[in-house]
Structures are given as structure tokens and as C-alpha cells.
Write a structure and sequence with these properties.
- The longest helix is centred in the N-terminal third of the chain and has 23 residues.
- The chain starts with 5 loop residues before the first helix and ends with a helix.
- It is mostly beta strands.
- The protein is rod-shaped.
- The chain has two domains: 109 residues, Immunoglobulins (Immunoglobulin-like, Sandwich); 100 residues, Immunoglobulin-like (Sandwich), CATH 2.60.40.
Length: 291
């Protein structure tokens, strides 16, 4: 650096060092968002807790705000005389006594409580820095009872058509159904898909059909096992299973027959007639001899 005296160079290095140190402190000590924790599949009627995890570092907190589907429902401002403020929203009822700058508790949630929840944190003077993060919540209404299997028979023979349905009644969201044949998941070409039926209260009934022709391999140990499972995310998994008797022979045994020669023609008669015919012929010959 031509023309710069040694003392100027030292002064310049000191000023640069001080600037880098301030910049470093600014990056480390500013407000950071760590995570937002929202239950993914809570059940209707339950209370849920929403967590906003942040690190102020050297900043001072100005406010924490919560939004559901971009509509504000909760605000915490520590500098106000009443720090907590809640705003009415369908499906969102804040439990104020169990809420603060880090956590919000919602009371008795419903299907309307589903949505995207976002937490926004703002720092006070001098940085006024703002950070936010969000997470999804899908409220679950459990099905009315276990899945049911209909259309089955007490016994199947090789060649019979198996035609059954599995139904899971009234839930939200609709239960996901699967069929199993003797413990093995049924192939897609054996399934009959149905659109879920929507009720007036928003609940859905799901149904899945199973169609196939019974083969010898379907009757290990003389039994056919059919199982249907119903699943909703990680909160609901139930199944119904039925075992029915299997018959490897075709329906109805084939009749045996035996040919009887009479003159120039051959008559095919059931073997059960032969003893009667022989008895009749013997009695006729006996009468002819007596005459």
C-alpha cells in the first residue's frame, strides 16, 4: 500500500478486525428459529399442544404470533399489560392458562381444527429480526367399529367365484383398506375399488372388493383365510379375518355308469340299476320254466 505509513496500516488492521468481530457477533447472537412442533394426526375431542422452539441469543423478544391457514389466532407480547391475546376462529379454541411464549394449547379440537400452523417470532429493538416456521395437522375421527367382511360363503369349492367386500364405516379421513389371502397381500387385479361415500357430517365410509376364482392352492390344510385391514396414518390399524372350509373337488361328484349289452345296442345305465335288472331277468326266466 504505497503512501500509507506504518501507523496507518496498524490502525487499518485494528478497524478491520473490530468490524469482523462485530459481524461475527451479529451472526451468532441474533434470533433463530429452531423448530415448530404440531401433532400430525390428533384425535377429535382431545387437547393438543403446539410448540414454537426458538433461540433469542442476545436479542429481546418483542412478540410471538400463531396462525392457522395464515389467519392469526394467538399473540404473545411480553411488553403489554396483558401479554396473551387470542382470536376466535372455527375449530380453534385457545386454553389461555396453558399457553405462553413457547407453547399454545388448543382445547377439544374438531375436524375443523385441521390445517397449516405457523409460528412467527419477532425481536425487539435494535434488530427487529423476524423468523417463522410451520407444520401441518390433520385431525382424525376414528371409524365406527372394526372393518366388516360381507358376501362370503361358509364353504368354497375349486372353481367357485369368491366375491366379498370389506367396509370401514364413518371416519375422517377415510380408512385405507387392504385384502390378504392366506396371509399374502392380494394382487391388484383381484381388487375392486370404490369411491368413499361422504356423509352429511363430513365423515366417510370406505369399501374395497375382492374377486377371484378359487384354485387348489387357495386351500392349504383345507381352509381359505380372508383378511381385511383398515388403516388411518399411524393412529388406527384394525383388521377382520375369516376362515372358511375349502373343498378340493368340483361341486357335486360325477356319477359312475356301466354299459349293459342288449341285442345290437348298448345301454348306459347307472350302476345302481344293475342289481334290480338282474333280479327282474331271473324272475322272468323262472316263470317261463314253470310254464
Amino acid at each position: 500500500m504505497a503512501g500509507v505509513r506504518m501507523c496507518d496500516r496498524v490502525s487499518l488492521r485494528v478497524r478491520v478486525s473490530e468490524y469482523e468481530d462485530c459481524s461475527s457477533r451479529g451472526r451468532v447472537e441474533s434470533l433463530k428459529m429452531i423448530s415448530v412442533e404440531v401433532p400430525s394426526h390428533p384425535l377429535t375431542g382431545s387437547n393438543v399442544e403446539l410448540y414454537c422452539n426458538y433461540d433469542l441469543e442476545k436479542d429481546t423478544l418483542y412478540s410471538v404470533k400463531w396462525y392457522r391457514n395464515e389467519e392469526e389466532f394467538y399473540r404473545y407480547v411480553p411488553g403489554d399489560s396483558s401479554p396473551i391475546e387470542a382470536f376466535s376462529q372455527p375449530g380453534v379454541s385457545v386454553y389461555r392458562a396453558m399457553s405462553d411464549q413457547r407453547k399454545v394449547t388448543l382445547k377439544s379440537i374438531s375436524l375443523e381444527s385441521s390445517g397449516k400452523y405457523r409460528c412467527e417470532v419477532s425481536a425487539d429493538f435494535p434488530s427487529f429480526h423476524t423468523v417463522n416456521d410451520d407444520d401441518e395437522m390433520l385431525v382424525v375421527d376414528m371409524p365406527d367399529g372394526d372393518p366388516s367382511i360381507t358376501g362370503g360363503r361358509p364353504k368354497y369349492h375349486v372353481g367357485d367365484q369368491v366375491n366379498v367386500n370389506c367396509t370401514s364405516m364413518r371416519s375422517r379421513p377415510a380408512a385405507s383398506l387392504e385384502w390378504y389371502i392366506n396371509g399374502e397381500k392380494a394382487e391388484s387385479d383381484k381388487l375392486v375399488q370404490y369411491t368413499p361415500v361422504n356423509d352429511s357430517d363430513g365423515l366417510e365410509t370406505s369399501r374395497l372388493g375382492l374377486r377371484f376364482t378359487a384354485r387348489p392352492q387357495h386351500f392349504p390344510a383345507g381352509q381359505l383365510s380372508l383378511k381385511c385391514t383398515a388403516t388411518i396414518a399411524a393412529v388406527y390399524h384394525l383388521f377382520t379375518e375369516e376362515s372358511v372350509e375349502g373343498q378340493l373337488l368340483q361341486t357335486g361328484p360325477a356319477l359312475e355308469s356301466k354299459g349293459v349289452y342288449a341285442g345290437a345296442s348298448s345301454i348306459s345305465l347307472p350302476h345302481t340299476w344293475v342289481p334290480c335288472l338282474l333280479t327282474f331277468l331271473a324272475q322272468t326266466i323262472h316263470l317261463l320254466i314253470q310254464l
